[in-house]
Amino acid sequence: MSLDVPAALLERASSGEVTDAEFVACVRDSLPYAWQVISEVAAGLADGADFADHATPPPSETERGQLLRALASDAIRGGLERHFGMKLAFQNCHRVAAFRPAAVDSAAYRDFISPTGQLLNQTPELRDC
């Protein structure tokens, strides 16, 4: 299961009354490691940079799973992008980048999401991540 959804929120979701803020709070509470990583890359944009990234492998499979669940879900990723006002990009089990929306057409963004960028970010110890 990706998220720990409180009963009251699940009830509201079944009637279609969930706000983005409620959804993002559920993500934050359910996936604390992923929230920490995404918060860090968002903070990296605070100084005016167009790009910030996180490339430290997670401390355990539990944290790795949280990050993968957060970034593999369109709804979760989209909620995080709207909440933080950025575009997320993901290369492997731990390399996450944040880009300002205006930088999505930048060389840095295109390089990060390119097949070459993906290949250059591989190491044997990350093969099974």
Q: What's the alpha carbon Rg, rounded to whole Å?
A: 15 Å
Structural class: mainly alpha
Shape: globular
Q: Which regions contain 5 or more consecutive residues with pLDDT less than 50? A: none
Number of helices: 7
Multimerization state? single chain
Q: N-to-C terminal Cα separation, in Å?
A: 19 Å
How would you characterize the overall build of this protein?
With 129 residues, this protein is mainly alpha-helical. The chain has one domain (7-123). It has helices at 7-14, 20-30, 32-44, 61-72, 74-84, 107-113, 115-120, and strands at residues 51-54, 87-90, 96-99. It has a three-stranded antiparallel sheet with strand order 1-3-2, sandwiched between helices. Helix 2 (20-30) crosses helix 5 (74-84) and helix 3 (32-44) crosses helix 4 (61-72). The longest helix is centred in the N-terminal third of the chain and has 13 residues, at 32-44. The two termini are 19 Å apart. It holds the Pfam family KH_NucS_shadow.
Which descriptors apply to this entry?
mainly alpha
List strands and helices in order, with pairings.
Blueprint: H1 7-14, H2 20-30, H3 32-44, E1 51-54, H4 61-72, H5 74-84, E2 87-90, E3 96-99, H6 107-113, H7 115-120
Antiparallel strand pairs: 1-3, 2-3
Summarize the structure.
With 129 residues, the chain is mostly helical.
